[in-house]
Amino acid sequence: MLQVKELSVKFGDYTLLSNVSFSLEKGCWLMVAGPNGAGKSTLIHALAGTIPYEGDIHFLGKPQKSLTPRKQAKIVGVLSQHHSVNYSFTVEEVVRLGRYCHTPKLSFSANNQDDRKVVEALKMTDIWELRHHSVLRLSGGELQRVFLAQVFAQEPSILLLDEPTNHLDIGYQSKLFPLIQQWLEQGERAVLSVVHDLGLARCFGNQALLLNNGQILACGKKEQVFSSKHLEQAYGIPVEKWMQKIYEPWNTSVKNFSAQESL
Amino acid sequence: MRQKHRRWIITAAVLVTPLIFLLCVGIGSVNYTPAEIMQVLWNGIRGNLHETSGNGVANVILKIRLPRVCTVALVGAALALCGTAMQGLLKNPLADGSTLGVSSGASLGAVFAIALGLHIPMIGSIGVTVMSILFAFLSIILILTLAHILDYSLSTNTIILVGVIFSMFAGSVTNLLVTFAGDKVKNIMFWTMGSFTGTTFQDAGIVLLALIFCSILLLNLSAELNAFAMGEENAIHIGVNVRRVKLLIMIAVSILLGISVSVSGSIGFVGLVIPHIARFMVGPNHKKLLPISMWLGSIFLLLADLISRTILSPAVLPIGVITSFVGSIFFIYIFYTLRTKQ
Prior knowledge:
The complex is a heterodimer of chains A (about 260) and B (about 350). Chain A is globular and about 55 Å long. In chain A, a hairpin with a 2-residue loop joins β9 and β10 (about 215-220). Chain A contains ten helices and ten strands. Chain A is an alpha/beta fold and about 260 residues long. Chain B has helices spanning about 1-25, 35-45, 55-90, 95-100, 100-115, 125-150, 155-180, 190-195, 200-220, 220-230, 230-235, 240-265, 270-280, 285-310, 320-340.
């Protein structure tokens, strides 16, 4: 569904990404991981077409540069990590904009199909109750769900997520990722997500791409990519040991807590 | 809730507008009753003016008051439309022709054209308007490019800062040209504070044409403006052709501001204040916001003009004194609320 060939991004004298090639098949969920400054977000920006790049990107076999913005939006949806809205649009107005690429240029009224997709997206992300609220009064997690609903309403085949749970609490993480999984299973779809948290990266998705200094360190099956050797190379510390160390206390304390509770 | 709001607003629009119109035509150095005005208008429409009590009344109303009131209403709508479009496009609640320096740029263009005696054969004074539009467009491009170089994220404050600096620069060059050009150019007060003295139906006609063209264009782009108001990156993601839409909006804004400035000088802050009041009434969706802004802009400028003509009568205050007085207080208020929100 997505093919990237020899992708390079340069910003002045800096090379942010060099020679990145990979492909994404339908039904796949690719986790892009790597240390800070590895080029994860740059990859998303290049794929979304918001920054200039060298190399080839193909969506469903069509070169990205040949697609009009509308056509591209029908294939690719993007969820960014930051949203700042200055004006008090309602939740529904934001979500409805997701239908933009499906609306003919000179149409003045929404059709039934648009209405139905908006309602579906609002319900799927569990913000139906909030649909008339101003987005200015929402919490960070709620706002992220509004933009997720927008991208669902857009009905793309490929979803690009840029650290979607950054700054958000784990309650939200535990809802968002299963939701993405559910979306992925609903058709001929694929997901590429940048994830900072290696715990999450290991838990969800089925493929992985490890970036370091703008280059691919490993790419393929998740288990092979996240091997202790690769991770140590990327992060410069024994990652596996560290992860075990920070998650180890949870095994014991959680048990104790539930034991206390049952008393 | 919103539905109720809208009905209330439409009712108000229908009731208030003719009243304000009558008020503005009626009050001045000589006052006329609504009955007198209606009679003159009725006779004017039927094409016979001899039935009115005295030709003096008809003359004042049809040759002075009416063209002025029409021009004021149309310029008010044009300025408010520009402000709304820019605040949406730049996602910046402080954007306006005057705060960004676009009006100053347009003034400079107009003064430049007059001072150099730039009379394009056949079209005569249109040369001034064309230069005004051109300079408005160049100013937008220059200000946004400069702001972009200084601050990649194009934050609210950087744009305003660059705008203010550009405004001062354009203002000083305008001042210089006015000083050297002498009597050829209207005085500097006109270019910095605006004036509707001596406007004709021809002026109103030019503004009307521009307003029809640009408002149709911008109303057609209301979905795109909504997308921009949520952030340019989001607009790209949902499939907006960002470059094309931006260019179209900037062209529309330049035409409107350029023509407004060449007709009535640069009148500050209308485009800043009105969109906020309109947003308060109908919310930020541009489909409703653009038309309501135009209506409010007309009413606001009509009242400002009325005050400027009558408050120190027989002296006439520049209209910009009134709008800037209201506008600058409003500017501080918006700036303050933005700051405390962050």
